[in-house]
Amino acid sequence: MSHSNQHFIPSSFTDLFKDPSRPYAKLSEPFDVILERYDLCEDMAQMLCQPSLNMMGSMNITETDVLDRTLQGLLINPDIVSPSEAKWVLQRMSELLNWNVADLPALLDQLQDAFSSKSTSLPAAHPPHTP
User: Who wins on pLDDT, 121 or 38?
Assistant: First the structure.
């Protein structure tokens, strides 16, 4: 039995591994790699649900604020999840929480752009002074 018959990976996730200009081209990674990435991202989305609700309640902030803060946290270290995977995690988390955020993909793109421009405008860290 092949791997594809044993596991379901939604197309919203496999699309992350496709070239949008070549929709019928092969995926950019082997199935095993995509499955591993999917498992990580799905687990992360599930894990972030309760902390997100707690953040909304304790900080009295909106769903959009939670998405912004969580995306910033995920984007800090792209070695863990790529920016596209981070946005997928938040879309999945929103789905699990039944959040109805208007035009969520566009909002996540805006939040990512704001994070990127903020992080590139920060001054570079100075090395410690050595006598």
Answer: 38
Residue 71 in contact with residue 86, Cβ under 8 Å? Answer: yes
CA dihedral 31, 37, 42, 48 (to 10 degrees): 180
What is the extent of the structural domain holding 40? 31-110
Q: In this prediction, what percent of the chain has a pLDDT beyond 70?
A: 86
64 in a structural domain: yes
Residue 94 lies in a domain: yes
User: SS3 of 79, please?
Assistant: coil
Per DSSP, the three-state class of 67 is helix
Distance of CA 120 to the CA centre of its chain: 19
| Domain contains 128 | no
**Amino acid identity, position 122:** L
Q: Is the pLDDT of residue 24 over 80?
A: no
Number of domain units in the chain: 1
